[in-house]
Amino acid sequence: MIALVRDNPLIAFTVAFFRTQVDGVRDRARSDRGASAVEWVVIAAICVLAALAIGAAVMAVVSANKAKIQQGTNLPS
User: Which pLDDT belongs to residue 77?
Assistant: First the structure.
């Protein structure tokens, strides 16, 4: 049965076609690795900047309400 499948020209063509397609995808994936690394660096930089901005905003709010925080005026009764 396997010999009949292997000897069929349509199946041989289909297998060869898919192998070439897979090899092409693999080659593109290898060449895109550098670009992917750059994208991850950009994403990481954006996350760091967002964290710094949020930290600065929290510090500004805490500094603005420093007196209230020290007096405990916003504490529930």
Answer: 55
Q: Which residue has the higher pLDDT, 21 or 2?
A: 21
Residues 6+ apart with CB under 8 A from 5: 11
Question: How many domains are there within the chain?
Answer: 1
Residue 66: inside a domain: yes
Provide the token pair at 52.
């710094």
Q: Rounded mean pLDDT of the chain?
A: 77
In a domain, 36, yes or no: yes
- The answer, yes or no, to whether residue 73 has pLDDT greater than 60, is yes
Helix axes 33-64, 9-31, angle to 10 degrees: 40
In-domain check, residue 57:
yes
Contact assessment for residue 12 and residue 6, using Cβ atoms and an 8 Å cutoff: yes
With vertex at residue 75, the alpha carbon angle to CA 74 and CA 77, rounded to the nearest 5 degrees, is: 120
